[in-house]
């Protein structure tokens, strides 16, 4: 494994890139391109035995498993809030510090989260994302993903109190107010 990792690392110094034939996005490692291509092929090699949902990478699958176990092994040093993913306390810390390290190169607006910057950047391009089932268009891919749950009836947000599940975190959080 160490030899393989070193070999992969050496490619970053060659300047050689591997481009996705579907969208043109470039990667410095062929293995990263292969994982990326699963987005286009919708190939999901990692099924969850608990709920049947499948995932494109083992990392995403393992993160998903924490939903079922309810385990939250990572915590905020400032307030003690716990999280299921290792990156969440770092992101959450920004709610305490007000830090916004991600700047839009087009307009200079700053964001606390990279995902918010990514969403924002589409406001400059005018690019839209269409639902493959009904054709409805959205300005943000995350909005499309939430919309697609209407068609799949996928409910990712289960309530630990009563067992009811919800399609969006917003609806789930509203539901939590009744408990």
Automatic annotation (TrEMBL):
One of its GO terms (cellular component) is nucleus. It comes from the Eukaryota. InterPro entries: Znf_C2H2_sf (IPR036236), Znf_C2H2_type (IPR013087). It is found in: Nucleus. Transmembrane segments: none annotated. Pfam families: zf-C2H2. Keywords: DNA-binding, Metal-binding, Nucleus, Repeat, Transcription, Transcription regulation, Zinc, Zinc-finger. One of its GO terms (molecular function) is DNA-binding transcription factor activity, RNA polymerase II-specific. Residues 18-45, 46-73, 74-101, 102-129, 129-156, 157-179 form the C2H2-type domain. The keyword Magnesium does not apply. This is ZN519 protein. It comes from Psilopogon haemacephalus.
């Amino acid at each position: 494994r160490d030899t393989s990792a070193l070999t992969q690392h050496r490619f970053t110094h060659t300047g050689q890139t591997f481009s996705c034939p579907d969208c043109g996005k470039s990667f410095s490692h062929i293995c990263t391109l292969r994982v990326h291509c699963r987005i286009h092929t919708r190939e999901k090699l990692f099924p969850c035995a608990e709920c049947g949902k499948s995932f494109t990478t083992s990392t995403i699958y393992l993160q998903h498993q924490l939903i079922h176990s309810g385990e939250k092994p990572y915590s905020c040093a400032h307030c003690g809030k716990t999280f299921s993913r290792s990156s969440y306390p770092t992101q959450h810390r920004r709610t305490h510090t007000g830090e916004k390290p991600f700047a839009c190169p087009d307009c200079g607006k700053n964001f606390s989260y990279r995902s918010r910057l990514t969403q924002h950047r589409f406001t400059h391009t005018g690019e839209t994302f269409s639902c493959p089932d009904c054709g409805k268009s959205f300005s943000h891919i995350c909005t499309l993903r939430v919309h697609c749950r209407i068609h799949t009836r996928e409910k990712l947000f289960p309530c630990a109190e009563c067992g009811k599940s919800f399609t969006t975190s917003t609806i789930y959080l509203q539901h939590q107010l009744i408990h």
